[in-house]
Amino acid sequence: MNNTFNFRRFGLLLRKTIYEKGLVLGGTFILVTVLIVLSYSSTSQNRVSSLPQRMGFVIGLFSVTAWVNIFLSNFTKKSVAASYLTLPCSHFEKWLSVFVITAFIYLPFFLMVFKVVDLLFLNYYRELAVTKFYYSAKQLETDLPYLTYNFAEKDNLNRMPFSIFLACFFGLGGVAVVGSLYFNQKSYIKSALVFLGLAFTLSLALNMLFDTIIGEKTSTGIVSFTKAVITTENERLFTINASESIQQIVKYFIMVFIPATLWLIGLVRFSDKEL
Amino acid sequence: MINIQNLSFGYNRKKMLYENLSLSLEAGSIYGLLGKNGAGKSTLLCNMMGLLFPVSGKIEVVQHNPQKRQPSFLQNVYFIPEEVALPSISIHTYLELYAPFYPKFNEHQFYKYLKELEVPSDQKLHKMSFGQQKKAIIAFGLACNTQVLIMDEPTNGLDIPSKSQFRKLVAAALTEERLFIISTHQVRDLDNLIDQIIIIDESEVLLKASITNINEKLCFKTVAELDENVLYAEDSLKGKTVVAANVMSEDSKINMEHLFNAVIANPNRMKEIFKYTTDY
Q: Residue B68 and residue A271: Cβ atoms within 8 Å?
């Protein structure tokens, strides 16, 4: 018997999960959709702005954490955890089911819903612009553009390259997987606190290090780990960029290494998980 | 079928629950795991199921290391925890979703067990009472026909007729290839069911013996006066009911509760009595 992966077993596990959690996961998705729609509706008809559009996008992006958390909410009760852990499936299959449901169900649904909402609302606002002359066509293009998402770097999703969107999506999903498997109770809050704490500490430590290295300054700041800004006493602004090779390393570290590591920690944690 | 060698386990490394515990359990028996509340019965069962990992020592269950929780191991063992939490689906759906994971599952047996335990098969699981849920999961566990069936306090929440029905079903389901372990602190519930008794207390196995062996070594009777062979005594209407060393080879019926109290009260003397017959 293959103790790592078996198609039939995996299919049974997926079927069981969808049956048992489909309603809650579906409900979560509907809630996310409603929040996106509400966010879009908050755009003023007279003063066009892409802020609510961006907010809708961020809501959908961050909701992956709630989705994963609900999917892995098997550890709050010992009896449920025992049933889940003793279900005759491998650790890999259990981990893969989380990944498949996140990447192949949540992600396409979210993108689809987001695109539809975006098209509908923007068409409506543009129609208003044309019929009622609330704002100029030029304003429309710059302030409220249609969102695109093709698998190409040049296209953007809410002014965010698709590859960065995917990195954020899987990174956040990875944080939720690790958090759900490490914390049995209130895992969502605890993992959010740990993640924010780590991000804050890292950013603070880097900035303090940079402050120490650059002596004469009024303020310094590290932006996206590859760029630093220095403001001198006479208000002059300097920007220091890391070399291209370092930028590439940092980019792949953040976009590929961190999300992949988080998901892999999740896989290892499945095998270490106790009641 | 289950071999535990020098198992050490503790939730806290400074205070171990078990240290160097060894135990060997064979197929074809129903083992009653008895102990006081907090004695570590559930912990031991969880170690056998791979739900908790030992600090040191080795556990082998159906020739697998439970800690790895491999599918080939998990489809040969079934665990009924003390508290059951079932999904909000019907029994039929539960069967459809869970039974295919167990290759030896027998649907006919499952419905037969449900009927005998008087569990309505057309109801949603989460709408059932705790006792009904427990009976449904017992029926499912028995019908899985796994080599090892581990039940943690299975009679908790069961009414009196169901307890008796439970004993009948479990006894009938046992075969030469299967091993059942039932842990409980309600020792009377296991009367006439188990054929091997394990009593644990204070992190150690105080007694592991078959019913036949216990009958040979101990005698359960009512006496007027206590003598030096008495291990445990309790006042009753007719005199004193006692557990005594069976020096006269008397036949008696085991009183599980008195046996348990006798072992807890005189662990060293019990060990001495069962010294040459107990295989830990």
A: yes
Q: Could you tell me the CATH number of the domain that includes residue B180?
A: 3.40.50.300
- Chain B residues at the A interface, defined by Cβ less than 8 Å, are 46, 49-53, 68-72, 74-75, 77-79, 81-85, 87, 89, 93, 97-98, 100-102
Range of the domain at B168: 27-39+70-202
In which domain, by residue range, is A127 found?
7-272
Contact between B69 and A85 using a beta-carbon 8 Å cutoff: yes
Q: What are the chain B neighbours of A87 within 8 Å (beta carbons)?
A: 74, 98, 101
- In a domain, residue B82? The reply is yes
Is A2 part of a structural domain of the chain?
no
Of A1, A3, A86, the CB nearest to B79: A86
Q: Let me know whether B108 and B245 are in one domain.
A: no
Q: Which of B59, B64, B69 to mutate to test the interface with A (most CBs of A within 10 A)?
A: B69
For the stretch B153-174, what's the b/e string if a residue is b when 16 or more beta carbons lie within 10 angstroms of its beta carbon? bbbebbeeebbebbbebbeebb
Residue B79 maps to a domain:
yes
Q: What is the pTM of this model?
A: 0.89
Per-residue pLDDT in tens (0 to 9) along chain B, 280 residues: 899 999 999 888 778 888 889 999 999 999 999 988 888 899 999 999 999 999 999 999 999 999 999 999 999 999 999 998 888 899 999 999 999 999 999 999 999 999 999 999 888 998 999 999 999 999 999 999 999 999 999 998 899 999 999 999 999 999 999 999 999 888 888 888 899 999 998 878 899 999 999 999 999 988 888 888 888 988 888 888 999 888 888 888 888 889 999 999 888 888 888 875 555 5
The answer to whether B69 contacts A3, with C-beta atoms less than 8 Å apart, is: no
A130 within a domain of the structure (yes/no): yes
Q: Both B172 and B193 in a single domain?
A: yes
**Would you call A245 exposed, middle or buried from its count of C-beta atoms within 10 A (0-12, 13-18, 19+)?**
exposed
Please give the ipTM for the structure prediction.
0.91
Judge: B101–A87 Cβ closer than 8 Å, yes or no.
yes
Of the candidates A158, A127, A146, A144, the one whose C-alpha atom is nearest the C-alpha of residue A47 is: A144
Q: Looking at B145, B167, B202, which one is the last position of a domain?
A: B202
- Do B79 and B185 belong to one domain? yes
- Burial grade of B270 (CB within 10 A; 0-12, 13-18, 19 or more): buried
